[in-house]
Amino acid sequence: MEHFMKAALTAARASLAEGGVPIGAALVHRGVVLGTGHNQRVQLGSTVLHAEMDALENAGRQSADIYRDATLYTTLAPCAMCTGAILLYGIPRVVIGENRAFQGEVAWLRERGVEVEVLQDAECIALMERFITEQPALWHEDIGV
Q: How far apart are CA 126 and CA 81, in angstroms?
């Protein structure tokens, strides 16, 4: 599991280096990373490319059987949009790096039967704390405050 969260963290750091919001994700099926992604709202001027959505896009079209046997790793708790995609595709497990900076839709995922593990990973926490301190306006824009 640590390896897959590291892939998500690498993606998050790539976003930060590009001037974006440092959130990353990885879609994993049976020990294979199908796709990673990072928040690209700033870089591409996108309204929908959060890390989870970007990871799904980069994984390419998969069969329902693949999604229903996959795990999504994300450095920060998913928002309502990303949670909707997780539920739409039937992804049964989500591993979250941290949810202190943003609670996201953890309760909704669990209510819908998704197994959710929140790591409170020190690297994920430090990355978001630094970003929020350095870029409060961008952070508030991204989470809709």
A: 25
Task: Evaluate the CA torsion angle 70, 74, 77, 78 in order and state its sign.
Answer: negative
Tokens for 88? 């739409």
pTM given for the model: 0.96
| Backbone φ, ψ for residue 28 (5° rounding) | -125, 135
Pairing of strands 32-38, 70-76: unpaired
Closest C-alpha among 68, 95, 70, 76 to residue 3: 95
**Which one from 52, 105, 115, 123 is the annotated catalytic residue?**
52
55-106 pLDDT per residue, tens:
999 999 999 999 999 999 999 999 999 999 999 999 999 999 999 999 999 9
Residue tagged 């990973």 (tokens) = 121
38 backbone dihedrals φ, ψ, rounded to 5° = -145, 160
Packing angle of the helix pair 2-17, 51-59 (nearest 10 deg): 110
Would you call 52 a catalytic residue per the annotation?
yes
Distance in angstroms (rounded) separating the CA atoms of residues 117 and 74: 11
